[in-house]
Amino acid sequence: MLPDSSLDNEEHAMSGSINRVLVVDDSRLQRRILVASLQKWGFDVVEAESGEAAMEICREDPPDLILSDWMMPGMNGLEFCHAFREQSKDNYAYFILLTSKSEKNEVAEGLDAGADDFLTKPVSSDELRARISAGERILKMQRELSEKNRIVSDTLDELQSVYDAIDKDLIQARKIQESLVPELSKKFGSSTVSLLLKPCGHIGGDLVGMFCPGVNRIGFYSIDVSGHGITSAMMTARLGGYLSSTYFDQNVAMEQRFKRFYALRPPDEVARLLNARLIADTGIEEYFTMAYCVVDLRSGVLKMVQAGHPHPLLLRRDGSTEFLGKGGVPIGLVPDISYSQEEVVLEKGDRLLLYSDGFTEARLENGEMLEVEGLLDLVSKCDARQSGKEFLDDLYWNLTQIMSQEHGLEDDVSATLFEYEGP
Fold first, then answer.
1. What is the CA radius of gyration of the chain?
2. Cis peptide bond prior to 3, omega within 30° of 0
3. Which of 73, 202, 243, 328 is the most exposed place for a label (fewest CB within 10 A)?
4. Integer Cα distance of 171 and 195 in angstroms
């Protein structure tokens, strides 16, 4: 709808329609004819006798609509249109070229320069009103789109600020989680326990650890909490307290005897106690898998519980390999469940590898998972002379060389390596 002269100019402009019109023509008579009609219809009209003068007006106060003659001395209408579009990218104005040209190639040239419409001279009053109405509709849609884009841009900026704050918190959370594993390798007599922890994001749901309540007695574990992200990481923090290597009085894997020293509980009892604690905590839906071992360094006797965790890999000194365990039920799923305990005797030079399914379920380039056969192949590629942390780092590096680069690390990867070297 064309504007009414009684409509307040500011209100009219805020409505998103055409308010201010610039008429550009080197003919004073032609300008007067156009200006008279436009003012009669209620538009605020400014005039320019050349393209150069029109550019000065546009720089100071861009109009909503431009009516420009094509053929003018100096900067013609086509050049003016192109220059206007170049300097006024944020403030779109509807541009109508007034011309006697009607050839298709000339019309195409005008469109390429940025013109929106054409009027053939002499200009018909009715046609001019119709073209302005069409321009008003297009300009209104363009301004609505610009406003929506502005809102989207502002929203994205707000989301970026929120993301940056969350990212900062997650970086700090990762430092806290790393503090749960203060030592990645430690000697116990001549034997060694080494740890590997590689979250797939800032923080993860895997946890590895070790503790020693006294000479010749050590415990070590590998845990994988269900899910990913913050919730899983909070659970690992809680489990890190339950299996603390510093505060033995809080460690459920230990019990104090005669008020003098701490002893390691049997692995099956530890699994049962942890299961009871998780089941008793209402509102917690997470569960976790675990492989937990205790070793008597004097005899080499290793006792182990497997609660839904991947089968630990025994690497004998003679080069033979064996997967231990019978599976078991994850901790926190079923109440009042009993866990079985297995026992194996280690010889000097034997190694035991506990690992999360981040290894065996890693996606390869062919789309398949690594599986246990692939894990054995990774182990065989590690330098036989390497031990401890170097062995685990090499094992992880070998994994990164064959996993899908497109998908990357989709799950946390962790491992605990025990190397037995006798009493």
1. 38
2. no
3. 73
4. 21
Output the six-digit token pair for 70: 């094509």
Q: pLDDT tens across 193-227, in order?
A: 999 999 887 778 899 999 999 888 999 999 999 97
Owner of token pair 């065996």 = 360
The tally of CA atoms less than 13 A away on the side-chain side of residue 253 is 29
The predicted model scores a pTM of 0.66
> pLDDT tens-digit profile of 129-173?
999 999 889 888 888 888 898 899 999 999 998 888 877 877 777
Pairing of strands 117-120, 94-99: parallel
Residue 328 near residue 401 (C-beta atoms within 8 A): no
For the stretch 83-137, pLDDT in tens is 999 887 777 899 999 987 666 677 788 888 889 998 888 888 899 999 999 988 9
Q: What is the pLDDT of residues 251-310, one digit of tens each?
A: 999 999 888 889 999 999 999 999 999 999 877 788 999 999 999 999 999 999 999 999
How far apart are the C-alpha atoms of 51 and 140, rounded to whole Å? 26
Between 121 and 393, the more confident residue is 393
| Structure-block tokens of residue 140 | 């209104």
Which tokens belong to 201? 């994001």
| Residues 165-190, mean pLDDT to the nearest whole number | 80
Question: What's the chain's average pLDDT?
Answer: 88
